[in-house]
Amino acid sequence: DVKVTQSSRYLVKRTGEKVFLECVQDMDHENMFWYRQDPGLGLRLIYFSYDVKMKEKGDIPEGYSVSREKKERFSLILESASTNQTSMYLCASSLFGQRMSSYNSPLHFGNGTRLTVT
Amino acid sequence: SQQGEEDPQALSIQEGENATMNCSYKTSINNLQWYRQNSGRGLVHLILIRSNEREKHSGRLRVTLDTSKKSSSLLITASRAADTASYFCATDNAGGTSYGKLTFGQGTILTVHP
Question: Inter-chain contact B42–A35, Cβ cutoff 8 Å?
């Protein structure tokens, strides 16, 4: 089974701090994604990556950056945490990096990191 | 903008009954997927239906897709208390470069009473 591991289940940070959320997958997946989940808003895509050192903005990239130095690891960075970034953050990975998206494999999610910014 | 929207937002049924959740979307898609989320956990993939398919089955799950109406439904038959969870539809939107990224709806909270 694919395993996607997020480094922390719960995190509490102060406003203005730089925050790193780490995600590791063990199945050699090309694609990796960061979503945030908020009540009433569902999941929204922050950033994704389809290869090492490649990154693309999602729907809500403002205030975030990402890093993918190795294929198995995808980091989400909050440059200066703010209270409106309090949320559940979900990392996911999938197998295909091709443009034939009708054949894309499903996303495999980690258990999430609940971040509170005070 | 919100692509997939589930209906109802919450559903409460008795064990043994069937549960039907609906999803509407706005743009053309390559495929539509359903996911399940237990409280405080990540999402788990249930089933994928491609845009050229109309119906798909997996165990007690039945998914339909009507691309002319831009809608899908998920039916869970003979529900169990363990089916209690949130259910999300997600679309892989057509056009441009997808790389498999999905747009999720807000979800339906299903409660199955023993």
Answer: no
State how far the Cα of B14 lies from the Cα of B12, in Å rounded to an integer: 7
Q: How far is CA B59 from CA A1, A14, A44, B21, B80, in A?
A: 19, 46, 29, 17, 13
Give bridge partners of residue B87 from the DSSP assignment: B36, B108
- Given this model, what pLDDT does residue A2 score? 65
Res B101: pLDDT: 84
| Separation between Cα atoms, residue A7 and residue A55, nearest integer Å | 21
CA nearest to B43 within chain A: A109
Q: How confident is the model at residue B96 (pLDDT cuts 50, 70, 90)?
A: low
Query: Is A104's CB within 8 Å of B31's CB?
Result: yes
3-state SS, residue A27: coil
Contact A34, A91 (CB under 8 A): yes
pLDDT digits over B34-91, tens only? 999 999 899 999 999 999 999 999 999 999 999 999 999 999 999 999 999 999 999 9
Count H helices, E strands: chain A? 0, 12
Stated as kind and residue range, the H or E segment containing A29 is: none
